[in-house]
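Issue 218. Parser rejects a valid record. Input:
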Amino acid sequence: MTYRELLRKGQIELTGMAEAKVDAMLLFEYVTGFDRMKLITDGGLECSPDVEASYLSLIGKRKEHVPVQYIMGYTYFYGRRFYVTKDVLIPRFDTEILVSSALDCMDGREKILDMCTGSGCIAITVALEKSNTCVIAADISMAALEVAKANASKLLADVTYVQSDLFEHIDGRYDMIISNPPYIESAVIESLDPAVKDMEPRLALDGGMDGLDIYRRLVFDATSHLEDDGILILEIGYNQGEALSALLTENGFEDIEVIKDLAGLDRVVKGVYRRNRCLTD
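Output the parser choked on:
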């Protein structure tokens, strides 16, 4: 079998799955080392039985709805390669919008907390993009923290990790708190692609009946852990901008802004907590 025929077989095996051709090509590159140009020039060469077996084995895993990123053990975020396992949510482009929005308003803010860090992609990116920051990252899952620590080590990012159920073990105040918490409504999860609902950690997906359970706790407790003029910035679901804006207002935040993604959907909300004003009002 030639390399070109092998790729075609993988594409056929994945027929009917979302992104079948893309996933087949990603796994092909992972196993063979062939990029698209090499496929053009050398695709007619015969591949070894071992290569064929390895590739089709991974195609079989993808047919069982295992995400390509878990199969390969990595994904890319903000131009960097991150190690991922089934213990962490796979970083997505939506979260790059959260990070970009946070970086845009970070000047002069040095002490940063990333809550619900997962793979560590947010904390690590902030630490590398803003070298003058002191970044703390927290997660309830020790398994997730081990993944995050491995990523920080590989990418040479100076991040301190804390196992904590939200703010349970968090001390001090921060200039900015960033979070991509679980925000999908419990009833909606069963309608998601099997690669998400059955493979990614439910703990990182399930936001309760209305998707706002973690936000309520996080926003309330954040007021005790933000410096004066501290910023809370959160990734949100496409239909949660109004609800999160109201929640921030109820908890004393000002200058609230909802930021949209490239599709024009609500994706990030941020607010400023003016501690001294709130304490004197």
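Fixed in the parser; the record now loads. The chain has a mean pLDDT of 95.
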